[in-house]
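Record copied across here:
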Amino acid sequence: MRISLVNPPNIEHTGTFRPPINLAGLAAYVRERGHEPKIYDLEAERIDDVKQIAELLMKDNTPVIGFTCLTPRYPVIANIAAACKNIDSKVIILLGGPHVSGAVESVFDDSSIDYAVVGEGEEPLEDFLDYLEEGRDVTAIPNLAYRLNGRIVVNPRRPFIKDLDSLPFPAWDLLPLSLYDNDEVMFNSHYMGINSARGCAWDCNFCASRVIWNGKVRFRSAENLVKEIKTLVEDYNISEFMFYDDTFTVNRKRALKVCELIKKEGLKIRFYVSLRADTIDREIAAALKEAGCLVVYIGVESGNEDILRSTGKGIKKEQLRSTVSMLKDIGMPVYTSFIIGHPGDTHETIRETIEFAKELDSEQAKFLIAVPYPGTHLYDLALKKGFLGGSHASEFFYYSCYQHVAVNLSAVSDEDLMAYQKKAYEEYDLRKRSLKKK
């Protein structure tokens, strides 16, 4: 069966394009099982017009269109789905992704959405296409959500895939590879995203990983991962990578093995990883640098000890100081991020955060306004405080870390949060250093 998998447009046009490896992975999985997927990366293509998008998606009369959905993109997805239905009311619209797992019932606020997949998508998507092709009742499929007699039904989830090495490599041939090239922040040439693990062992109050992965972490083997990198280098001439793992170094032994194999294979690559300050030491940092790591990304979150503790991250300022200092000492560039507008944040604590960013003095930094994304503890708190009324699906567009204050859980005004964000960027722009290869 034919299916179009869609990465919706990023109306804000912020940040580096992240190749939708989730969709490429799904496409490879169902293609291996006899289906015919296509991928539309509307973010990279920079196509924003809803009518134009609908005509593009419907030109081949594809019977199923699947969207990956982040919370702020739900409204535009709903508009695109409605426009597709106006062209052909029989087209089936399916949603998946973080927003679905965090707030599945809200997905069906728009009548154009037919089904949604909660959690891990490969097996449910295969079943969905198989059942449709065979004329079977899809409502029996685990992980599927749908409407039934005016209510929303969410089927029980199946177990996670145990062996991630058993999955095929992503269908890179279906992506617009030429568009992932020479970004403004760190990459000099064509780059690609890689998922080397799934899940996170921690439960920070601002992150929704727990609702997708249930606090479990599963890893691909170092050998399988490096084989993927080698394939991209040799077959696609791609030598720069971003790892999408929440914490690349959570498995110390595997991280060191990956670095060892990259060097053993003679792969001349540059890559970027995210990690926690308490999951890296001098040995791992040195190994990453030797393997080609161009920068490590560390979520600092706050410069106030009490606020930091309240996030549930389990990190202290001294650990952050020590880790950043060690990384600088061995010549490893650092990219930090901070959140302003935490519950309890005041003028004083926000100023502490901005000053702490200056103290750490990383090559690059970003300052995000706290957002209670569905599935997070912040979302639960916002509901408890009565800040979220009804389904509020139409308000999801404002769930952005940059242009808006979606829900203010801090002790300062919306205007002050925006002013602090502007001030932080203006002051940091004077000290940031390029991550581009000299």
